[in-house]
Amino acid sequence: MSLRGVIYGLYARRLRAQLASGPVPRHLAIIIDGNRRWARQMGLADVSLGHQRGAEHIDDVLGWCADAGITHVTIFVASIDNLSKRAPTEIDFLMRLAERVIPERLAAPSGRWQLHLAGQLDLLPDSTARALKQAEEATRDRATGSHVTLAIGYSGRAEIASAVRSLLHEEAQAGTTAGQLARTLTDEDIARHLYTTGQPDPDLVIRTSGEQRLSDFLIWQTVRSELYFCDVYWPGFRQVDLLRALRAYSARSRRSIS
């Protein structure tokens, strides 16, 4: 092992020791950003290779999350804006990548994560939506207690609008009038109709690439979440970067209790 590898290992061990007695987020949400910039930084002529490395890297990070005791992970894969504003050739590559990598990595028989999908899958190519739904179904009976949600074709505002529409339809079918609903409506009523219903809200949100915004990601669910912005691009996100984020979360949690 190189000297650099030894130093890295010692530093990672030190970070894990610092986390040993502190709180760990039950639910971690990640905005994966910087695939194209990572490819350019690495001198790659084809930025699509950044997307490929980023997609394959999800499996690595999920393993680190499992090691840290995190049981719920939500990953922002592609927004509605991404699907509508990126070049068609780039979107086509991303969708074919999702069709291949997600079933291979997350729905393999030896996997531990139960897969959930969040977003408007009808905006995706039919083959992509079908592959993702089949992968989700393949993991449905996993009872490990580990859950990963992929937000793809996703918008937080669109999710809330969809939840309200679903609630209104449900109440109308039950014979509830608009006036009755207005008097009794609670935030829990809306939350029951979100894509993430039944899951805990994120305790911590990490965004890579140095950008410091949520970009319409889980805007209902993250009102109380801790936010952590990391300068490294997603494909270069290392285990020590995750451990640093968890250390920051632990320190903030301790301060809020004291």
What does this structure look like?
This protein has one domain: Decaprenyl diphosphate synthase-like (Undecaprenyl pyrophosphate synthetase, 3-Layer(aba) Sandwich). 51% of the residues lie in helices and 14% in strands. It is built from ten helices and six strands; from the N terminus they run H-E-H-H-E-H-H-E-H-E-H-H-H-E-E-H. It has helices at 3-19, 35-41, 48-68, 80-85, 88-106, 126-138, 156-173, 178-184, 187-191, 239-257; strands at residues 27-31, 72-79, 113-118, 146-154, 204-207, 226-229. It has a six-stranded parallel beta sheet with strand order 3-4-2-1-5-6, with helices on both faces. It is globular, with a radius of gyration of 20 Å.
Question: Which key terms come to mind for this protein?
Answer:
258 residues; alpha/beta; Undecaprenyl pyrophosphate synthetase; six-stranded parallel β-sheet; 10 helices; 6 strands; globular
